[in-house]
Amino acid sequence: MEKKHLHIAAGIIRNTKQQIFITERPEGTHMAGFWEFPGGKLEQGEQPEDALIRELEEEVGIIVTESKLFHRVEHELDDRFITLYFFIVLVWHNEPYGKEGQKSRWVEQQDLIASEFPPANRIIVEMLTQ
Predict the structure, then answer these.
(1) CA angle, corner 74, sides to 70 and 75, nearest 5?
(2) What pLDDT, on the 0 to 100 scale, is given for residue 80?
(3) Stretch (H or E) spanning 18
(4) Residue 46 and residue 124 in contact, taking contact as beta carbons nearer than 8 Å
(5) What domains are defined for the chain?
(6) How many CA atoms lie within 13 A of 31 on its CB side?
(7) Distance between CA atoms of 101 and 14, rounded to whole angstroms?
(8) Pick from 114, 118, 88: which is nearest to 21 by CA?
């Protein structure tokens, strides 16, 4: 059986105090209970940056006006391949919050803990905390 290949855009929302906004994966979802950089799946034909803008408005209520690709990660799970596009979100409007009821918080960039994130996100946490 051929594995499904998902493409996901995620935002590293970093404020001027070098704090990063993270959200918790809700109960009943894949990897529930882990913290993550908010974002979601690309729709058919959608570019990663367009998906980032759409997903962050839907999930955390911000309007992204400037972002740049930080790193791309390829990750294989038992049932799927995932390509993740992590963007540093440089400029946005509104204050982010858990718009879908998910827990959220600001954390000092150097205080991010890789083991609290899904395996595919851990290299990003390590890059941010070096």
Answers:
(1) 125
(2) 87
(3) none
(4) no
(5) 4-129 (3.90.79.10)
(6) 14
(7) 21
(8) 88
Place of tokens 């034909």: 45
> 130: Cβ–Cβ under 8 A, 6 or more apart, which residues?
none
Task: Report the predicted TM-score, pTM, of the whole model to 2 decimal places.
Answer: 0.94
pLDDT at 16 over 90: yes
The CA–CA distances, whole Å, from 5 to 12, 69, 86 equal 22, 20, 17
- Sign (positive or negative) of CA dihedral 120, 121, 127, 130: negative
For the chain, percent of residues with pLDDT exceeding 90:
90
For the chain, the straight-line distance linking the first and the last C-alpha, in angstroms and rounded, comes to 39
Q: How much of the chain, in percent, has pLDDT values that exceed 70? A: 99
Pairing of strands 35-36, 19-24: antiparallel
pLDDT tens for 62-119 read 999 999 999 999 999 888 899 999 999 999 999 999 999 999 999 999 999 999 999 9
65-83 CB burial, b ≥16 within 10 A, e <16: eebeebeebebeeeeeebb
Query: How far apart are alpha carbons 11 and 1 in whole angstroms?
Result: 32
